[in-house]
Amino acid sequence: MRSHEIDYKIIGEDIQVVEIELDPNETVIAEAGAMLFMEDGIQFETKMGDGSQPNQGFMGKLFQAGSRLLTGESLFMTHFTNRGYGKRKVAFAAPYPGTVMPIDLAKIYGNQLIVQKDAFLCAALGTQMAIHFNQRIGTGLFGGEGFILQKIQGDGMAFIHAGGVVMERQLNNEMLRVDTGCVVGFEPSISFDIQRSGGLKSMVFGGEGMFLATLRGTGKVWIQSMPISKLVDRLSAGGGQARKEGGSVLGGLGNLFED
C-alpha cells in the first residue's frame, strides 16, 4: 500500500509540535494520546494495527497489535481522516520536551528505519509498524533501551520524537560509540551492538556508564542529547545532580550512604 502524501509544518523550538495538513480522505496514524488539536472535518477512529494491510484479517491485526505491547506502546493506534471538502489540519505533540524529526521513508535505505521503542509519534497512512529484535544478546542485557526496537517501513512521511537536540550523522564504513540511551534511530544498513566503555577503572569511576552503544557501517544515525531516562534521573531526588555518575557503579552504591 502506497502511503498517503501529507503536508506538514514543524512548530516550536525546544518543545516542538507537528502540524499536518490533510486533503480530503487523507489519513495520518498516530500514537494514542498524541493529538494536540484537529480542525472541523477531521474524524478519528481507534483501530488495532497501523492500517497498512487492510486485508490482513483479525488475527493479523491482533498479532501486529500484540507486538506493539512488547515495545511498551498502546495496543491501539488512532487514525485521523479528513472527511471534509477542503484541506484540514491536525497537530500532534510529543509526551516530553524535545525535537520532532520528519523522516521521508522513501529516501531511507530499504525504506526502513529502526528506532527506539518510544520514538514513533505519527505517520502517513500506509506506513507499517513492526517489532525489531536485535540479535546480539549483549544489546538486550546491557543496552539500556533493550533489544526490542521498532521498525518503521513505507514510502511516505513519518515523524519521530527525540529528547533534547537531535544530531544526524552519516557513517561511511565507520564506527561511532554513543551513550546507550542516546540512540534515537538508524538505517538498517547500520550494525548496532553494545560494548564495554573501557577498562575496569573507566567503567567504575568514569561516570559515562559501564557500556556504550556501538554503531558500525554505512548509513545514517540519529542521536538525542537528552533521552527521557536521563531527564527523569536528573529530576528525581536521587538523580545525582551535583556529580555526573548516574551511569557508573558508584551512582547506585553512593545512594546507600546518603542521609
- Strand and helix order: EEEEEHEEEEEEHEEEEEHEHH
Class, according to the CATH hierarchy? Alpha Beta
Molecular shape = globular
- What separation lies between the terminal Cα atoms? 60 Å
Largest sheet: 7 strands, antiparallel
Residue windows where pLDDT falls under 50 for at least 5 positions: 137-146, 200-208, 241-259
* Named CATH architecture: 4-Layer Sandwich
Q: Which topology does CATH recognise?
A: Double-stranded beta-helix
Summarize model confidence as the mean pLDDT. Answer: 78
- CATH homologous group name: Mitochondrial biogenesis AIM24
Q: Count the strands?
A: 17
Structural class: alpha+beta
C-alpha Rg, in Å?
20 Å
Beta-strand portion reads: 35-45%
Domain count, please report it: 1
Number of helices: 5
The helical percent reads 10-25%
Chain-wise SSE layout:
Layout: E1 7-11, E2 17-22, E3 27-31, E4 35-38, E5 42-47, H1 57-70, E6 77-82, E7 88-93, E8 98-104, E9 112-115, E10 120-124, E11 128-133, H2 137-142, E12 148-153, E13 157-163, E14 166-179, E15 183-186, E16 190-196, H3 200-205, E17 211-224, H4 228-235, H5 249-253
Antiparallel strand pairs: 1-2, 2-7, 3-6, 3-10, 4-7, 5-6, 8-13, 9-12, 9-15, 10-13, 11-12, 14-17, 15-17, 16-17
Pfam families: AIM24
